[in-house]
Amino acid sequence: MTVSSEQELSIIAFLRALRETIISAFEQFEPSKRFEKTPWNYQKGTGGGEIGLLRGDVFEKAGVNFSAIHGDQFPMQDGSGPFFATGVSLITHLHNPHAPTVHMNIRYIRTAEKTWLGGGYDLTPMGYPYDEDTKHFHAVAKHTLDQIDPAIYPQFSQNARDYFYIPHRKKERGVGGIFFDHYATGHFEQDLKLWKGVGLTFLDAILPIYQRRVQTPFGSEERQKQLEMRAHYVEYNLMYDRGTKFGFQSGGNPDAILCSMPPLVRW
After folding, report:
1. How far apart are CA 101 and CA 122, in angstroms?
2. Residues annotated as part of the active site
3. Global pTM value
4. How far apart are CA 126 and CA 60, in angstroms?
5. All domains in the chain, ordered by first residue
6. Would you write out the chain's pLDDT as a tens digit for each of its 267 residues?
7. Hey, CA dihedral for 223, 229, 235, 236, is it positive or negative?
């Protein structure tokens, strides 16, 4: 199964452009550092992707990845036979404990039976949450979704609370955000508008928070607390995250799949 239409080519072009915009915005915090880009080929089919990795003075680690793959057998229960999947996924882990981790992903998947959109973004303070940051992050998400339908934000926000829950810790991974999957209302152009809106407003949600927090003074105790909270992040991603499972089950690139792992953690 390959790219089947001009529409899918347009989706790929949108994702590539969005990724470059985000990379450029993150690099503004790092005057002397740039993302290292590593292409990879999909071994179980055709296509592949590119890892974008930054290790800098503000971003201890940031990954902004793109992929577009075609395979013969969809690896999850929600489809079968040939599939096409493309998306952008990113994660940040900052040096400063007061600057939260953020995750964003938007994806398009087509199987033999159906086509759907998914994605979202969520915020994870590493031991030092700020109410104004949480309110801002959610306000951007709500404004974005309200332009489509005011009923969507409450649903997607609850989805995030449910999805990013760590059962063995009995807590949410962070302070939430929005999450959606298998999104297909029967009105694809409207669905695509929502999906693109999530991607395009991500920087509006996170950049003001980083501009406020990356210069906050911190000490060794705060750093140790950050590393302990990162451990919870690792536990969730390895044990529960469906995107991680999809990546491994589909035969994706392990370095790209595990790009979400923080560089240092403490248990």
Report:
1. 9
2. 103
3. 0.94
4. 13
5. 6-260 (3.40.1500.10)
6. 455 689 999 999 999 999 999 999 999 999 999 999 999 998 878 899 999 999 999 999 999 999 999 988 887 666 568 899 999 999 999 999 999 999 999 999 999 889 999 999 999 999 999 999 999 999 999 999 999 999 999 999 999 999 999 999 999 999 999 999 999 999 999 999 999 999 999 999 999 999 999 999 999 999 999 999 999 999 999 999 888 887 888 777 888 889 899 999 999
7. negative
